[in-house]
């Protein structure tokens, strides 16, 4: 699986790259039919302090899978987004097995 990580309105973070890459590679190992992951980290002004956004879009057979989380920390947002993707991937895998 190809992983493309982009940062919007902020500088690159090697630690976030490592965390997200490691977790997405685990998903790719579990779901070998994943083709590509596009990750976006965005920093927005938010008075509540929740302006750190992680969006991940996965390319796989069928419609693309997308998840987005917003938190006060990029690492928390990324982990929450990946958990959402895992739920969607499990659902997609169960639909593959039925046919």
Fraction of residues in helices? 40-55%
Tell me, rounded to a whole number, the average pLDDT.
90
**How many DSSP helices?**
2
Order of helices and strands: EHEEEH
Major sheet details: 4 strands, mixed
What is the rounded distance between the termini? 24 Å
CATH superfamily: Ribosome hibernation promotion factor-like
Task: Describe the model.
This protein is of the alpha+beta class and 99 residues long. It has a single domain (2-98), classed as 2-Layer Sandwich (Double Stranded RNA Binding Domain), CATH 3.30.160.100. Helix content is 42%, strand content 30%. The protein contains 2 helices and 4 strands. The chain has helices at 14-30, 74-98, and strands at 2-8, 36-43, 52-59, 65-71. Strands 1-2-3-4 form a 4-stranded mixed β-sheet, with helices on one face. β1 (2-8), α1 (14-30) and β2 form a beta-alpha-beta unit. α1 (14-30) packs parallel to α2. It is globular, with a radius of gyration of 14 Å. The model has no long low-confidence stretch (mean pLDDT 90).
């Amino acid at each position: 699986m190809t992983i493309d990580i982009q940062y919007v309105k902020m500088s690159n973070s090697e630690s976030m790259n490592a965390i997200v890459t490691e977790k997405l590679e685990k998903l790719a190992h579990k779901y070998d039919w994943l083709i590509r992951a596009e990750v976006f980290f965005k920093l927005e002004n938010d008075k509540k302090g929740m302006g750190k956004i992680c969006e991940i879009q996965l390319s796989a057979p069928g419609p693309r899978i997308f998840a987005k989380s917003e938190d006060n920390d990029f690492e928390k947002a990324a982990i929450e987004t990946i958990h959402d993707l895992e739920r969607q991937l499990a659902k997609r895998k169960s639909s593959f097995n039925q046919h």
